[in-house]
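ok, trying the design again with the full structure, not the truncated one.
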């Protein structure tokens, strides 16, 4: 599985060292938010980490979960690909930024966390999530699903 998340500029060294120390494979890249005359005025660093086991998953989640609480981009890809395309967020804007693209092929599943980490969204074409009942049956009883 992969976890892709944005974090604050200036923390690149800290995050890179954290992943390297734990031997967790990761890729660091940037989302350019605004450019004027070739000068970047703001860029958001992103990390794509490859999670290989439950211990690494819990460790990474513990280290990064504060980010969606700050409304930073945070998506867990269970088996699909997340790519980014440079686009203008509004039709009348010249500003360009990287926009995440989720590949919604059959059986691909993503979990995004947003709204100050108050909302967890499951995006999937997998048959086990085709109904609310099936979703509820796949989760531990302590988790509430609102529809």
């Amino acid at each position: 599985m992969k976890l892709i998340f944005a974090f604050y500029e200036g923390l690149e060294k800290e995050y890179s060292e954290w992943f390297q120390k734990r031997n967790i494979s990761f890729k660091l890249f940037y989302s350019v938010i605004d450019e004027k005359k070739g000068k970047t005025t703001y860029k958001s660093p992103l990390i794509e980490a490859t999670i290989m086991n439950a211990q690494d998953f819990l460790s990474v989640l513990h280290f990064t979960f504060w980010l969606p609480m700050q409304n930073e981009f945070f998506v867990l890809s269970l088996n699909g690909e997340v790519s980014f395309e440079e686009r203008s967020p509004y039709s009348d804007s010249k500003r360009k930024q990287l926009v995440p693209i989720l590949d919604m092929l059959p059986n691909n599943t993503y979990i995004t966390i947003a709204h100050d980490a108050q909302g967890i969204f499951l995006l999937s074409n997998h048959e086990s999530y085709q109904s609310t009942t099936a979703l509820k049956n796949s989760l531990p009883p302590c988790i509430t699903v609102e529809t």
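Keeping the full-length input from now on. Helices lie at 12-21, 54-64, 66-69, 132-138.
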